[in-house]
Amino acid sequence: MSLVGYARVSSVGQSLDVQEAKLQSAGCEEIFREKRSGVDTERPQLKECMRYIRKGDTLVISRIDRLARSAEHLLQLSRELEEKGVTLKVLDQSIDTGDAAGKAFLGMLAVFAQFENDIRKERQMDGIAKAREKGVKFGRRPVMTEEQEGEARQLRKDGWALQRIADHMGVSKGLIHKVTSRPGSSGV
């Protein structure tokens, strides 16, 4: 059972000194250090830390925002820690998942994170519906206009090979095949 610390700052210009001092005074035997943005999904030291910790260990961080990029990410990490039998201790917010109150607090965070997600999805769907009402089209723009598709169908009727049409129009042979093979396209 060891105390393992994780310290992170967002940029190269910032210092890990304050966090490291807190983690050392908390008794951390091993400290993983990282200078990366919290939104960066590639945090090699965090991944290494998660691989390093074992059942019975305690992961110690100075503040919640040093570990996770969002409440949802925090809960994912805390579930991962719980599955490994590792407790999480947050020094500045006095959270310790080794006791019932700490687990309850993280549980409340989970509820709020899910609520926030649901509200965000609802707003997004409302926004999409309003945009559609205004005539906004979603998805990828068509590679070919209707006129170009008509030209491709005519060239195919005129006996042009698919590859020749594709080269002529600067698109793939597969797209020409798709355009000229649609029902009612009169493709050869």
Summarize the entry for a quick read:
The chain is α/β, with parallel strands linked by helices and 188 residues long. It is built from seven helices and five strands; from the N terminus they run βαβαβαββαααα. It folds into two domains: 107 residues, Rossmann fold; 55 residues, Arc Repressor Mutant, subunit A (Orthogonal Bundle).
Q: How many structural domains? A: 2
CATH topology of the largest domain: Rossmann fold
Shape: elongated
Helical residue percent?
A: 40-55%
- Largest sheet strand order: 2-1-3-4-5
What's the order of the H and E elements? EHEHEHEEHHHH
Q: Say how many strands there are.
A: 5
Count helical runs: 7
CATH superfamily of the largest domain: Resolvase, N-terminal catalytic domain
Strand content: 5-15%
Pfam families: Resolvase (PF00239)
Protein name: Site-specific DNA recombinase
Family: Belongs to the site-specific recombinase resolvase family.
Active site: 10 (o-(5'-phospho-dna)-serine intermediate)
Protein topology:
Elements lengths: L2 E7 L7 H9 L4 E6 L8 H9 L5 E4 L9 H14 L2 E4 L4 E2 L3 H34 L12 H12 L4 H8 L3 H9 L7
Parallel strand pairs: 1-2, 1-3, 3-4
Antiparallel strand pairs: 4-5
Helix pairs in contact: 3-4, 5-6, 6-7
Protein model, in words:
- This protein is an alpha/beta fold and 188 residues long.
- 51% of the residues lie in helices and 12% in strands.
- It has 7 helices and 5 strands.
- It has helices at residues 17-25, 44-52, 71-84, 100-133, 146-157, 162-169, 173-181; strands at 3-9, 30-35, 58-61, 87-90, 95-96.
- Helix 1 (17-25) links the parallel strand 1 (3-9) and strand 2.
- It comes from Cohaesibacter marisflavi.
- The active site is at residue 10.
